Amino acid sequence: MAEAPEAPSTAALAALERLDAITRRLRRECPWDREQDERSIVPHTVEEAYELADAARRGDDAMLLDELGDVLFQVVFLALLLEERDAGSLAGVAETISAKLIRRHPHVFGKDETQSVSSEAGQAGAARRMVPGESEARELLEGADTESARGVLSNWDRIKREVEGRGEDDPFADVPENLPALLYARKVLRRADPEGGVSGERASRDADEARVGDLLLAAVALSRRLDVDPELALRAAADGVRERPGGLG
User: Fold this and answer.
1) Which of 36, 207, 217, 222 is a good FRET partner for 100, with 20 to 30 A between their CA atoms?
2) Does the pLDDT value for residue 103 go beyond 90?
3) H or E, element range at 220
4) Which of 89, 113, 87 has its CA nearest to residue 102?
5) CA-closest candidate to residue 144, choices 132, 133, 131, 154
6) Can you spell out the DSSP letters for 35-55?
7) For residues 102 and 213, what is the distance between their CA atoms, to the nearest angstrom?
8) How far apart are CA 168 and CA 166, in angstroms?
9) Torsion over CA: 127, 133, 135, 140 (sign)
10) Domain boundaries, the chain
11) Strand, helix or coil at 15?
12) φ and ψ of 205, to 5 deg
């Protein structure tokens, strides 16, 4: 797999600027775009996300490129709505996610203090300002597993809880209740048992996926036989975990 270049191309930055300009013009001059707000746009955002996921599943690069553009337009449009009421901007969106990624990856960005990773740093090699919470995240993860994907995921959750204060009082507070039931249940279980997950001997990923797929299909078949809506049943079970003191305990 080829590595991504260290810095974005000027073409990429120019194209993003052009998309921003096009979006602003649509907002000013297109009757349909002028009428939209967050509530009316988000259903389209969700639909585009599903189409993007389908393109990735198919392994169709041309389709993926097209669907990524649709999702990117949604982001730019929603950021423009924030800007209209002085609540944010596309730049603010980018800076917020940049700070979050730096803070939650101290095993990457803590290696070289002089590495330029933000727009406020000058040319490559110039010192950058640490983002809020970055030093606390580094201290928190001293001696933690930063070499495995599972370790990094666990560290991500620890930083969210202990540095950013997310889920300190309610670990389920940031779990959207309108997620599809399967995604909702997965997120609830991850919040209920942050240190759980993969354990013991594993077969190949293909074998694991086949096994889980068979179990899920059997559960759907059972729900059909019992005339039970599997979405509602799974959501109710996940709600039970949220409401149970101690989560899975």
Assistant:
1) 36
2) no
3) helix 205-225
4) 113
5) 154
6) H--HHHHHHHHHHHHHHHHHH
7) 35
8) 5
9) negative
10) 11-88, 93-166, 173-193+205-249
11) helix
12) -60, -40
Q: Which CATH superfamily is domain 11-88 in?
A: MazG-like (1.10.287.1080)
Of the candidates 141, 140, 142, 128, the one whose C-alpha atom is nearest the C-alpha of residue 99 is 128
CB 129 within 8 A of CB 99: no
How many Å separate Cα 48 from the centre of its chain?
Answer: 15
Q: Could you read off the pLDDT of 231-241 as tens digits, one per residue?
A: 999 999 999 99
**Residue 193 corresponds to which amino acid?**
D
- Identify which of 170, 177, 196, 161 has the alpha carbon closest to the alpha carbon of residue 239: 177
> Can you give the three-state secondary structure of 106-162, one letter per residue?
HHHHCCCCCCCCCCCCCCCCCCCCCCCCHHHHHHHCCCCCCCCHHHHHHHHHHHHHH
CA–CA gap between residue 158 and residue 140 (Å, rounded)? 8
- As given in the structure block, the two tokens for residue 209 are 């996926």
Entry field: residues in the chain = 249
Per-residue burial over 201-215, b if 16 or more Cβ lie within 10 Å, else e, is eeeeeeeeeeeeeee
Q: Are 238 and 179 in contact (CB under 8 A)?
A: no
For the ranges 48-62, 134-148, 194-208, 232-246, the maximum mean pLDDT occurs at 48-62
Query: Which contacts qualify for 98-105: CB closer than 8 Å, 24 or more apart?
Result: 98/131, 99/131, 99/132, 102/131, 102/134, 103/131, 103/132, 103/133, 103/134, 103/137, 103/159, 103/163, 103/164, 104/137, 104/155, 104/156, 104/159, 104/160, 105/152
SS3 189: helix
Residue 64: C-alpha distances to residues 7, 71, 73 (Å)? 22, 10, 14
